[in-house]
Each structure stands twice: as C-alpha cells, then as structure tokens.
Amino acid sequence: MPVQSHQDPFMGEEGAEVQYRSMKWWHCAILMIAQSISLGILSLPSSMATLGFVPGCILIIGIGALTTYTGYVLGQFKIRNPQVHNMSDAAEILFGPLGCEVATVAQILFFIFLMGAHILTFSIMMNTLSNHGACTVIFCSVGAILCFFLTLSRRLQEVSYLGIISSLSIFIAVMITVVAIGIEAPDPIAHAINHPTLLSGFSATLNIVISFAGHLAFFSFQSELAEPKDFSKALFTLQATDTSLYLVVAVVIYRYAGGNVKSPALLSTSSTVSKVAFGVAIGTIVIAGAIIAHVGAKTIYVRMFRGTNRMNERSLVSYGTWVLIVFVLWVIAWVIANAIPVFNDLLNVLAAAFASWFTFGLEGLFWLHINKGQITSARKISLAVLNVLLVLMCCVMCGMGLWVSGKGIAVSAKTAHGAFSCADNR
C-alpha cells in the first residue's frame, strides 16, 4: 500500500463527519498520563530495592529529565513536519522508504506485545481475586474482550475520558498499597546504596527507563490536538506527574517493605489488601491497554486511508475496517500472551530493542535533523553533543538490554508453563 507521508492525514477535515483534530491539551495530558503511569509504576519499588535509595532516586529524576527533553524535541519535530502522524512517518524523513517500513514493523510489533502484557496482567489480577478460580486462558480471553470493546472509538478525544478512570484507578491502587505497607511494615530494612550485579543492576535500570517510555504514542496524540503547539503543555504535565509519583511510590514502598518487596508491588501487602488493590487497578489494566491498542490500530488505519475520504466517513467500510483492525490486533495479542511461556522476558527484549530508540535514539536524530547546518553557536554545539550522547546511550541501552533480557529468557524458560496453560500464573 502506498505511503503518502507527505500529507497531513487530518488535513482539510473541517465539516467532515468524523473530525479527529479535536483534543484540547488537557485531553492529551490525560491520555499521556493514563498510558505512561500504568503497570510500570508497580515495578519501581523492586528496582529501588535492587539499586538502593540514592542511585534509585538519581535515576528516576535523571531519566525523567531526559525523557522530558526528548519528548519536547519530538514535539518540535512534529510542528516542523506536520505530515508526521507516527514513528513510521518520522523514520521516512530520516531514512527514506526503507526506514519507514522498518519502523512500521517495529512499532506495530511493540504495540501488540504491550497489548499482550495487559491481557496477561488482567489474568494475573483475576487469578489473585479468585484464588485461581478458573483456567488462566479463560481470564485472558475475558481481558481481551473487554479491551476490544473499549478500543472501538476512532477518536482519541473520546478515549481520553476513559483515561481519567485509568489514572484514578492506578493512583488509588498504589495509594492503598502505600498505606497498607506503611501500616504492616513487613521488613523495614532499606539501604541508601546497594551493590547489585551488572545483570540485576541494569535490569532494574531498564525497568525505570521503560516506565518513562511512552514516546511511541506521542506523535499520534499530538496529531489529534486542535492546536499542535499545545503539546508541550501536555508533556510537561505528564512529566511532572509521573516523575513525582514514581519517586514517592518507589521510596515509600521500598522504605516500608524492605529488600523483599515484590513486583508488581501490589503483591507486597497482605492477601486481602492485595486483592482490593488489584480490584481497583482493573481500570488501568484494561483502559491503558485500550489506549495502546488505539494508537497501534490508528497507525494501520491512517496508513490504509491517508489522503482519502474514508478517514472521515461514518460508512460501513471505514468503521468496519477500524473494527476489523482492532479485532485482529487483539486476537494476535491474545495468542501471543497465551502461547509464549516466557512472555514477560520477550517483552523486555522488544523494549530494549525498540523502546530505547523510540524514546532516546530517534529523538537525538530528530534534533540533529532539525538543526542540520545551523550548529554554529556554543549553545547549539552543546545541544549537539547532548543529542549525540543520547544516540550513543540508546545504543548501549539496546545492546545491554538485549543481553540482560536474553539471560532472563534462559532462566525463565526452565520453569515456564507450557503454551495455553490453565495453570495459575501469579
């Protein structure tokens, strides 16, 4: 299918039946918070336990600052290239048609595996609430069906209202856990600095990086803003919220749960409190998965109908195509979640291979592309050095992350359940 990436996919939609560019900046902020502050926050206390207070806090604040900068560069790249709707379009500008195709495969693959992660987490939540009251495959199916129905709207503005529920859901679940651990204090022994192995230390660092790695969806969010220049407001709201919440949650839960804190952190409390917290977290487990699926489906939908009237029609063909894309993505995600015994480790492989580039590496290249031939002042030279370092950091993160994840797969494969197993996966 032809890629008409020279054209803004939502250009000239005034008066159309379906108008996508309708979000205010706060709609965008809610979506970004709901997508980013999701399941990743529950792994941060265990990362803090591995690293210690001082390195953990430095990494959370430092990575938060870096991802704020890379998000800002991404937004500026979009403003200068309004035809960009997703990472495929941006990669085509940088690397040509081949780069577009590689980025398309990478982001769709990553979206599908993230969707599978939400299906798997839903099954863990149901096994926790019901004490493994049914086959895990059935719980995965229920989760996939719920997520499918929540992904049926074609406009991000409508999905953003669900984002409010998702954000409140994870916030309340985390606060329940924080208060309960503070009261129970199972092992209040914590250290300022720990001495992890290279493998465990880098794995913990990668967990923190992934918690800030929502950039893959940012182009799509910005594309549906009524005023694309307002993206920076949404970005700064997101980064201030997630950095402060990540810091508080990681520090407090590690302080009171100690070195034996579990991941996800909701399992570190008593059985009753854990069930309550998981029950509250169902909102973010399902809705954040639907937001990810929406962006993935919209990438394919725009690719198919860009430059045609199908984008903005309320016809059987246009909406039926959307429903079919969403259905196929969730079916594939369901199959992957059930079929791959070492699913979480494989997800880490994809995160290392792709999220590092989508969050740091490509943004460094975006800045260099924007400022090509203009790096003359001391300020521009300093920023050029920073962005080159971002690309180099991405390469290290990608390589080391693949090594760490490969080790994890080798260990997990020895004790993993078979494909489509009914066994309890808690």
UniProtKB/TrEMBL annotation:
GO CC terms, sorted: membrane
| A Pfam family the protein falls into | Aa_trans
Q: Which InterPro entries match?
A: AA_transpt_TM (IPR013057)
User: What are the transmembrane regions?
Assistant: 25-44, 50-72, 93-119, 131-152, 159-183, 203-222, 234-256, 276-295, 316-337, 349-369, 381-404
Q: Where is the Amino acid transporter transmembrane domain?
A: 23-404
Q: Which UniProt keywords apply?
A: Membrane, Transmembrane, Transmembrane helix
Q: Which PANTHER family match?
A: AMINO ACID TRANSPORTER (PTHR22950), AMINO ACID TRANSPORTER (EUROFUNG)-RELATED (PTHR22950:SF479)
Q: Per its record, how is this protein called by name? A: Amino acid transporter transmembrane domain-containing protein
What organism is recorded for this protein? Answer: Aspergillus aculeatus (strain ATCC 16872 / CBS 172.66 / WB 5094)
